[in-house]
Design a protein that fits this description.
3-stranded antiparallel beta sheet; 194 residues; two-stranded antiparallel ribbon; 8 helices; 54% helix; mainly alpha
Length: 194
């Protein structure tokens, strides 16, 4: 249901979601003011904003409780008065599920990319998860460590191993070049090392 703030042009649609989706949205799109401490404004990302608008509907008499109990928290998504009038002010249960699936996928893509890039450093998966938490503000209460670990083990499609091999190769080449210039190994010796 949309809630109007004291400002004429600020409305919010309260959407049930998972804790880590809320944290990610707040970290990236929070636009607080004196009336709203947590208010997500999707307009910096046109794709997200347009997608959310298309999912809005006017209140319906029929209620479906399929979403209840599935999500642990809610997030306020800002809409304009124009959006309120033209599109509506709430999501149906089906659209709530679809929107959440999209947002969960976005957060997981960030997780997988970040994890893959850090994997080249040799950090353990526990350390990578800690760093991800620090970078995004997603806490243990929002998304528990075991679930993140399982997500990474099951669905990691990006691998940092190829990047790591290339980085190591460049470091080795630089090292052998320096040793060659300093006279510790000969040019002939340098060619023997991979």
């Amino acid at each position: 249901m949309a809630k109007k703030s004291n400002k004429q042009d600020r409305f919010a649609v309260w959407v049930p979601c998972k804790g880590y989706v809320k944290r990610w949205l707040l970290a990236n799109f929070n636009r607080p003011d004196e009336y709203w401490q947590e208010l997500v404004n999707l307009s910096p990302n046109r794709e997200f904003a347009d997608d959310f608008k298309k999912r809005l509907t006017r209140a319906e008499a029929r209620r479906d409780s399929s979403v209840k109990g599935r999500y642990t928290t809610r997030v306020a998504i800002e809409i304009t008065y124009d959006t309120f009038q033209r599109y509506g002010w709430e999501l149906t249960p089906t659209e709530t599920l679809r929107w959440n699936t999209k947002m969960e996928s976005e957060v997981k893509q960030v997780l997988h990319t970040y994890n893959a890039m850090l994997s080249v450093t040799g950090l353990s998966i526990a350390d990578r998860i800690k760093r991800f938490r620090n970078a995004t503000g997603i806490t243990e209460l929002d998304w528990d460590t075991d679930s993140i670990r399982k997500e990474l083990q099951r669905n990691s499609k990006i691998s940092g191993n190829d990047d790591f091999e290339q980085i190591v190769k460049k470091i080795e080449q630089k090292c052998w070049a320096i040793l060659s210039k300093s006279g510790h190994i000969t040019e002939q010796g340098k060619e023997l090392y991979p």
